[in-house]
Structure formats: C-alpha cells, structure tokens
Amino acid sequence: MNEQEASQSGEAGESHDVQLWDPERACRRVSPVEAQWSRGFLRCRPEKWFPGFAAQWMPIVHAIGCEATIADIKTLLTQPPYDEYTFVGEIGGEELVISVDDESARILLAEVVPGIDDKAGAVVAEYLLRRMFFSLVSAWSGAELTSVSFRGKAKESSTKVVASVRLACTINTGSVVVWVGLGQKMVENLDGLWRRQVQSSSRVAAGVSSVRLEVAQLGVPPQMLSDYLTKGTVIDLEVRASDTITLRVGNKAWMPGRMVNVGGNFGCEMAPGAVLAPSVAEGTTRLSVELASINLEAAQLAELGQPGAILVSSAPLGARVTLVINQEKVGEARLCVYEGRFAIEVL
Asked: Where are the domains of the chain?
C-alpha cells in the first residue's frame, strides 16, 4: 500500500461506511464436543479396522443374487434413527445400535426378497442386522472384544449412544442407509486409534510450534510504520470480509482455515486446498493482522493437518485483533468492514 492508498484508507475511516465487524454473525458455531472429536473420530475411516467385513457378506450376497456395495462411510455426532428396524447389542458392557430407517428397510427387503409380506420382512430384517452386528465384531482388528451379545429391538430412551457411523449402501439399484450407533468407549477407541495413526505418519518436526491465526497481511514501507500504528488510523486491508483465514507456523503460511465460534472463543476449522501466501513488496515490512496465536506440540500440529480438524484458541470472540511483525506484537486494532472488505482501526 503506497502513500496515496494510505491517504485513501484514512478518508475511509471518516466515512459512515466503516462498520465494526461482528464475529457472532460471521463465524459458524461449533460445539466443544465437535471440536474435541474433530481431529480423531470425526476424521477417521472406520473401515480401516474392519478389514474382513465385506468378505463375510459375499456368500449370502451371491446366494440371494444381489449386487451390494458400500458407497460412503461417514462418522457423525448424531443418534441413529430409532424406527421399526433398530436393534441393540452389547460389547464389553457398552451398547452398540444397528439401525435402518423405514424407507431403507423397504428398499432392502424389496431387493433381497421381492414380494415379501410385512411379518416375514421383519424377521428377515432382524436376521440381516443381527448378522451385520456379529460381522462387525468378528472383523474388528483392534483390541480383543469381550462379552458380546445381541439383545434385540432397541428403544431410544434405553440406549447410551453418543455418535454414529453412517453407511450408505447400494443393493442392486436401491440405495440403503445403515446406521451403527456407538457408545462413549468405542468413540474414544476409534478417536485414539486414528490420532495415533496420523501422528505416526506425520513429518512434522518435534518440539513446540507457534501457530498464528492471520486475517490479513500488509506490506508497509518502513518509514510509514509509525503512521500505520498511530491510534485512530483506519486502514483498508484490501481483502474481502469473510471467514477465511491463514494459519501460519512461525512466519510460514501453513494451511487455509475458516474462523469458527467454539463456546465463545475463536477457533479455526482447517480447510482443504492449497494455502494462498502472497508475498509483500520488496523493501516493505510484513505487518500481520491476527486473531490469536497458540503454542502446539508436534503431535497436535500433525492432527491439525487434516481438513475439518478444529483448533480452539483461548482468545474470546470479538472484533479486537493483534498487529504483529516478525512474531512480535506491535499493536492492537478493531476489525471492521468497509465496502465489503476488511479494515482495521488502530487502538
């Protein structure tokens, strides 16, 4: 930004068009529970620990003349649907729910046993879901499972499920969704397994790193730094006002992210894609506008390298930002919006 642009920014500060930025409206709300599981359970691929599951179904699929494939597997912090075809089992004293909604059950039964009546259909559905329960148990490649039992139909009020795995399947031409509801111990198990796998395959250097949540950067001529840091100065940051930010490790741009609101504190959800790291003009000083900075161990940094993982800071949600040069705080400002772009008012 040259002297003429700086002057224009100052004039903008006298305009009624400069509005204080409202993070409550701009940032997606994320529950602390979602943030807690975002690096492990919600990123994991459960099929990694059930390698023989599909093979166990090949004989029955061939016997009834169906073609069956799993189209998608997703972990969710939601309850499975509790309909007519919802059953519960127990593994190591903890409940596990197997469920299909009524529409999926109708499609499944029509493909497997065309023309079956409701009474016989209920028996077939229970058989298939019972078989699925024991297939999951026998295919599990983690620590040994104990005291396994299938209890029968489930009632939502009597189960202690905290999360689910959603399997979208194709049976011949029909689409069927099967839900597996998990208790706290199984969620923690899958979460820990995935985190350890991510950490073991990471190339992040050991030690503690400073991770910085950057809204924007400016290239400031050294002779103008004092003007930029003068109280009351309004500066157009020349970037669109949005929830997009850049995560920096030290002075290096690391990953793109999105601002989120986690229990009233700033957080960052890691975004997919390449990070945009435009350089400042030669001979200028890079002035960074930041929401927060957090010191993280290498293992934590490795987990955050996954799109969708959420970093939670201790910085309370608000319009106050920090002005930083070479990782050193040089001032504070209020984050504003001017003509759809971010601007700051130096404090």
From this structure: 3-38+206-346, 46-200
* Entry pTM: 0.87
Q: At what angle do helices 118-139 and 102-112 cross, to 10 degrees?
A: 90
Q: Centre a 10 Å sphere on the Cβ of residue 99 and count the other Cβ atoms it contains.
A: 25
Query: Per-residue pLDDT tens for 161-179?
Result: 999 999 999 888 889 999 9
Closest residue by Cα to residue 321 from 342, 292, 293: 292
DSSP label at residue 273 = S
Query: Residue 204 to residues 161, 208, 260, 272: CA-CA distances in angstroms?
Result: 35, 10, 25, 18
Angle, vertex CA 250, rays to CA 248 and CA 253, nearest 5: 30
pLDDT in tens, 305-335: 999 999 999 999 999 999 999 999 999 999 9
CA dist list (Å): 300 to 45, 59, 194, 266: 19, 44, 13, 18
Residue 6 structure tokens: 């700086």
The residue among 216, 214, 224, 222 whose CA lies nearest residue 282 is 222
> Residue 145 and residue 139: Cα distance in Å, rounded?
11
pLDDT, tens only, 10-61: 444 455 589 999 999 999 999 999 999 999 999 999 999 998 887 888 777 7
Domain 46-200 = CATH 3.40.1550.10: yes
Element holding 196 (H helix, E strand): helix 184-200
